[in-house]
Write a structure and sequence with these properties.
Structural class: alpha+beta
Strand content: 15-25%
Radius of gyration: 15 Å
Number of domains: 1
CATH architecture: 3-Layer(aba) Sandwich
Shape: globular
Number of strands: 7
CATH class: Alpha Beta
Helix content: 25-40%
């Protein structure tokens, strides 16, 4: 299921940008939408060296009883599926607003989650959150040019 969603075409960016409130209000709306879709934690951080010129990363984290990288069965894959659903729909919504949004697996996702103040990294590079400890899965990262603020 994960491969099917990841290989689905992203879709086009709507040609007319939506009238938005301030970046602070837009950030609040993005975070509310992510929570509505099912993420447990969501944060936004800046990107300084993004090849495509996306200035922001939206990072979603879902609670995970088992690490999807270590538990290939359905129990281990549910958090990965939930996270992928959230990022897929959230990225599509941003494109409908007229802004670029690309979601992808990212080896630096835990670092970006820490930069978005969702937790800290342990000595192995795994995200540790105040709410769930290490029992989390960092979903695909959304890189976007939607005007946001780190939060």
């Amino acid at each position: 299921m994960l491969d099917v969603i990841r290989k689905a075409p992203e879709g086009n960016v709507f040609p007319t940008k939506a009238d938005l409130h301030t970046p602070e209000v837009t950030t609040s709306h993005v975070k509310e939408m992510a929570r509505y879709l099912g993420t447990d934690l969501v944060g936004i951080t800046t990107l300084e060296n993004d090849d495509a010129g996306h200035p922001f990363a939206i990072v979603c984290v879902v609670r995970a009883d088992d690490d999807p990288h270590e538990a290939p069965g359905i129990g281990g894959q549910v958090p990965a599926q939930n996270g992928l659903f959230v990022t897929f729909v959230l990225a599509a919504w941003i494109r409908e607003l007229g802004f670029r949004a690309t979601m992808a697996m990212s080896p630096d996702a835990p670092r970006l989650a820490a930069a978005a103040k969702l937790g800290t990294l342990d000595r192995t590079g795994k995200l540790v959150t105040a709410e769930y400890g290490t029992r989390v899965h960092v979903a695909d990262v959304i890189r976007t040019d939607l005007p946001l603020v780190p939060a």
